[in-house]
Automatic annotation (TrEMBL):
The keyword Flavoprotein does not apply. Keywords: Membrane, Transmembrane, Transmembrane helix. CDD domains: PAP2_like. InterPro entries: PAP2/HPO_sf. The chain crosses the membrane at residues 12-33, 39-60, 81-99, 105-126, 138-163, 175-196. This is PAP2 superfamily protein. The keyword Membrane applies. Coiled coil: none annotated.
Length: 202
């Protein structure tokens, strides 16, 4: 592959990294749609208890050689990533429900946790792309707030899939698995959200 194409692939992969897109989305959505105190609390819960510890772990282990790279592209190495992140997500999910957070917010965390858990199971056989699955899921979350931006994020996920293959991080089979996981969990989450909203209106 040409050097220019690799540079573009690296840029797309970096911009589409879940550790960048997900916390950015959380912060923006919280401060746009919630009052300042609730937005600060929810953002701190998600970013401080999930994304910050995950970033530090990935950075340290990629620096000391435990992980081959920051993306943890090795399927065997990725097992320890799942065992680290899933308990954190479960704790945050429980806290969000216990503190009477907005149902949509709590559901988003719950289904995000389910997505990662399913990815862990799939990882026993295929290293599905978390870049792709999490950004597909992100597009569904954005869709509920702004349809056009949600569609744009969904389409951008196609470029992310290409970048992951171009960089040798995944095969097309693995990014397709990521797409399927992201789509199934997103559709289920949107259905559950709509169903609960209907019940609360009655």
């Amino acid at each position: 592959m040409k050097t220019e194409q690799l540079k573009i692939a690296k840029a797309i992969s970096f911009i589409g990294h879940p550790l960048l897109t997900m916390p950015l989305f959380v912060a923006v959505m919280m401060f746009v749609f919630e009052d300042f105190e609730k937005a600060l609390l929810n953002s701190a819960l998600i970013i401080g208890c999930i994304f910050l510890p995950l970033f530090l772990r990935m950075y340290i282990k990629s620096r000391n050689g435990t992980y081959t790279n920051f993306d943890v592209s090795d399927r065997i190495q990725r097992k320890t990533l799942f065992t680290f992140i899933i308990p954190l997500m479960i704790v945050v999910t429980v806290i969000s429900f216990k503190t009477s957070a907005a149902s949509n917010f709590s559901l988003s965390i719950l289904f995000g946790t389910i997505l990662v858990f399913i990815s862990q199971i799939i990882n026993l056989f295929v290293k599905s792309s978390l870049h792709v699955s999490l950004n597909i899921y992100l597009s569904a979350l954005v869709l509920t707030a702004d349809f056009r931006i949600g569609i744009a994020v969904f389409l951008f996920s196609g470029l992310i899939a290409w970048s992951r293959v171009a960089l040798g991080r995944h095969t097309w089979n693995e990014v397709i698995f990521g797409y399927c996981i992201g789509l199934i969990i997103s559709a289920t989450m949107l259905y559950a959200e709509g169903f609960i909203n209907q019940l609360t209106k009655q």
